[in-house]
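Many introductory courses stop at the sequence. We go one step further.
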Amino acid sequence: MKIIEDGRAPNPRRVRIFLAEKGIDVPFEQLDIMGLEHKTAERSAQNPFQRVPVLVLDDGNVISESIAICRYFEETQPEPALFGTTPVAKATIEMWNRRMELNFLFHIAQHLRHLNPKMAELEVPQVPEWGRANKDKALTTLTILDEALSDRQFVAGDRFSVADITTLVGIDFMKPARIERPEGLANVARWYGEVSARPSAAA
């Protein structure tokens, strides 16, 4: 078993944090996205969408998409539960993870990929106007999150979950995307201070 990744990218980091929270040790094989190593015939056969991370199991099965990989490990080692344990908790975590993935992390990535000249070979075509439009979309989501965090400790409730992992990675990815976190979001600041201090955040 191994995970193929580029350790600089945000989605592989989501998996690494998840595994660290679980205490699961998996070998990692690095490739260079900027060198287009994820677009080779071998890598394209593993994932035709040419993205990382990719989990290769001992029996040859291949699983791609970061949340799908996390779900695999949730099934193999249920505790600590990062996708919830009750129907309501599972649905709430799914809801917030989806919100933060599509309405926050995605927009930050689009801002970077469409505005950074170094990403031109990865994002064809680059559309600068679209890149700039994504900044406000991401910041709007942070404002919504700040209100949600006014009455709970974590993104999806009273327990740390995969939704917190997605959000943490998104906020940290704002730095290379050159998006400043707005001042005044006290609840987000409190939450970020807590989750970024967890040992798994350094994974």
